[in-house]
Design goal:
By secondary structure, the chain is α+β, with helices and mostly antiparallel strands. It is built from two helices and seven strands. The protein has one domain.
């Protein structure tokens, strides 16, 4: 599953984000910043539209309304704008 998710992230990076699971990761080369003025850390946003899983857990789009977010750092969002608000991030200019 990890290989499949990596491929999804690469494909999504050249397309438009939409409904799906989002997670922020610290990344010095990322294009998102935290909304607080004192935080100069940059982030990357991971995205998958259908499902994501770890060793003993799985998040599935069909069950999105049953989870208490965040789950292992993942959030469900209906759009990329909503995701950035949930993650407390803004796009770099």
């Amino acid at each position: 599953m990890k290989t499949r998710l990596i491929i999804i992230f690469i494909l999504v990076s050249i397309s438009v984000f939409s409904q799906g699971f989002y997670k922020r990761e610290k990344d010095p080369q990322g294009k998102y910043r935290n909304d607080t003025i004192s935080d100069t850390c940059h982030y990357s946003v991971n995205f998958t539209d259908n499902a994501v899983e770890g060793g003993l857990w799985r998040l599935d789009k069909k069950m999105k309304n049953t989870y208490t977010y965040p789950v292992h750092g993942w959030w469900w969002a209906e759009s990329d704008d909503q995701a950035l608000r949930l993650l407390g991030l803004r796009k770099e200019n």
